[in-house]
Design a protein that fits this description.
- By secondary structure, the protein is an alpha/beta fold.
- It has two domains: 41-250; 259-383, Nutrient germinant receptor protein C, domain 3 (GMP Synthetase, Chain A, domain 3), CATH 3.30.300.210.
- The chain contains ten helices and 17 strands.
- The chain has helices at residues 8-31, 88-99, 115-118, 122-133, 148-153, 162-171, 184-191, 244-253, 315-342, 349-357, and strands at 40-51, 56-67, 75-85, 102-104, 110-113, 140-144, 155-156, 160-161, 198-207, 213-214, 217-218, 222-233, 238-242, 260-265, 268-284, 287-302, 370-379.
- Strands 1, 2, 3, 4, 5, 6, 7, 8, 9, 12 and 13 form an eleven-stranded mixed β-sheet that branches. A four-stranded mixed β-sheet has the order 14-15-16-17. The protein has a two-stranded antiparallel sheet with strand order 10-11.
- A hairpin with a 3-residue loop joins strand 7 and strand 8.
- Helix 8 (244-253) packs across helix 9.
- The longest helix has 28 residues, at 315-342.
- The termini are far apart.
Length: 383
């Protein structure tokens, strides 16, 4: 076998590449700031409030600390800190000093914004959190009946930490019906669109009737979050929708939909589980059509006269699904009426019409647009 000879040029080139790689590692390794986890506050939730009279921000963070002292290995503690400042960054710097740690929002999934903060320029609120403190673009935006500080400090019975509960409920879609999920990226995109409006979950805390119990007895001051409401808003106005209207709006606006739909008629009570949804919104001039198709399967039937076990193939179930589709269509029309009454284009009709009409479409033309919604349900057999 002929021996392969490596030329001196190849050897010199190889060592030159290795030397360049070593220099790059040394230089960037010394200049890139990589704080240790022991020096970093892992923030799981952050809240921003705004005092219009003082022109001042109140920022609250909740961070998690892993305890490793004797007898506490593997346990965790949640700590809430609050500071005020003329800017969000100055308030977060104050919180860093209070904690003696570097604030990082890289693991933060929940951003509480008060309604007064929602009236401000969203870009000026999100940008410093994203660029300076690594807040993810997919962090969800929520608001509520209490201040962000109060909401973050509340103890939730199932998980203790309110941000962690909202993360599992809304971000991970665990244990809840189809809730609207609006990320920081969605908030900016919709508020900067022609419609200038969006919708986010509106949370109402309710003190638990039956408090949790451990070996020491009842654990007091636990709350549960009512997530059945949605806040629709633009730069000028805001309105809270609840119940069935909140449900259909969440289904219409969310990228993915989970949960179930209930329908009651003279023939019985039916519950359908949502498997898949398909939304097609088209504009022809000033007329906007929205077709919402839901694939569902039968989850439960009660109070019917038939003793047989029903399936999605039975005429009674198909009839109930058709009637429910008509009912959901009527709710969509009601949403349009509310949108016109309050002047908030939370259905995104102006943004859609702009795609058809173009630059000649005047601003604040919501009242001149026609909305034609249609909701249909297709019952499928469960696998």
């Amino acid at each position: 076998m002929k021996k392969i000879k490596i030329t001196s040029y190849v050897l010199r080139t190889k060592w030159a590449i290795i030397l360049a790689a070593i220099i790059l590692l040394i230089v960037f390794g010394r200049t890139v700031n990589s704080p240790a986890l022991t020096k970093t506050a892992i923030v799981v939730g952050i809240g921003v409030d705004f005092d219009e009279s003082k022109r001042e921000f109140t920022v609250t963070t909740q961070s998690v600390h892993m305890l490793s002292s004797a007898g506490e290995s593997g346990s965790q503690r949640y700590e809430t800190f609050t500071a005020t400042g003329r800017t969000i960054s100055s308030a977060l710097d104050d919180i860093s000093q209070k904690m003696g740690l570097i604030v990082s929002l890289a693991h933060c999934e929940v951003l509480f914004l008060s309604q007064s903060a929602l009236k401000e320029d969203h870009l000026q609120i999100i940008y410093p959190l994203n660029s300076m403190y690594a807040l993810r673009e997919q962090a969800i935006i929520v608001t509520g009946s209490k201040s962000p500080r109060d909401m973050l400090a509340m103890r939730v019975g199932t998980t203790t930490s309110s941000p962690y509960f909202l993360q599992t409920a809304i971000v991970n879609n665990e244990g809840t019906d189809g809730l609207i999920k609006t990320s920081a990226k969605d908030l900016l995109a919709r508020s900067l669109s022609r419609s200038e409006a969006t919708a986010i979950p509106y949370i109402v805390p309710v003190e638990m009737q039956d408090q949790p119990i451990d070996q020491q007895g009842e654990i007091k001051d636990n709350f549960e979050f009512d997530l059945s409401r949605v806040l629709v808003f633009d730069h000028d106005s805001a309105k809270v929708l609840e119940g069935e209207l909140s449900e259909i709006l969440s289904i219409y606006l969310s990228e993915t939909t989970y949960g179930s739909l209930n329908y009651t008629s003279e023939e019985g009570s039916f519950e359908f589980r949502i498997l898949k949804k398909d939304v097609k919104t088209t504009a022809k001039g000033r007329k906007v059509e929205a077709k919402l198709k839901l694939s569902v399967d039968l989850l439960d039937v009660q109070f019917i006269s038939d003793d047989d076990i029903l399936s999605g193939a039975d005429s009674l179930i198909k009839k109930a699904a058709k009637e429910l589709g008509a009912e959901l269509t009527a709710r969509m029309k009601k949403l349009h009426e509310i949108s016109l009454e309050c002047g908030i284009d939370f259905l995104g009709l102006q943004a859609k019409a702009y795609q058809s009409v173009g630059r000649s479409l005047e601003k604040d033309c919501l009242a001149t647009l026609t909305f034609l919604p249609e909701v249909t349900l297709e019952v499928k057999e469960a696998a």
